[in-house]
Design brief:
This protein has 108 residues and is mainly alpha-helical. The protein has one domain. It is elongated.
Length: 108
């Protein structure tokens, strides 16, 4: 990765992380002061359950994307012709490459 890509990635993940934290805290404040005062236990339980599952999915998605970014940073993977050919062979073995890739013999 180039230096500007690394800097942009760090800044982007920082901003996304701060926004997710603010959203997470905001939702819990809304639940505490808007839903809980009505004291309907079924509604309160369901809201907390949904918010907990959504927040788990949100953080899981964030950390998976962060892990992929870190792996790309460390590996500094470059797409070379040998890698492209190996990918094409793998896709041909799976039966995907015949219809998905450009056929050089066919004129468009």
């Amino acid at each position: 990765m180039k230096k500007w890509q690394k800097i942009c990635g760090i800044v982007t993940f920082g901003v996304i992380g701060i926004c997710e934290l603010l959203l997470w805290f905001g939702v819990y404040l809304d639940l505490k002061y808007i839903v809980e005062p009505y004291d309907i236990s079924v509604v309160v339980e369901r809201m907390y359950l949904r918010i907990d599952s959504l927040s788990f999915a949100l953080w899981l998605n964030y950390f998976i994307a962060l892990a992929i970014f870190i792996c790309l940073w460390w590996k500094d993977y470059k797409l070379t012709m040998s890698n492209i050919n190996r990918l094409k062979k793998t896709l041909q073995n799976l039966g995907v490459a015949n219809s998905a890739f450009h056929n050089p013999r066919k004129n468009y």
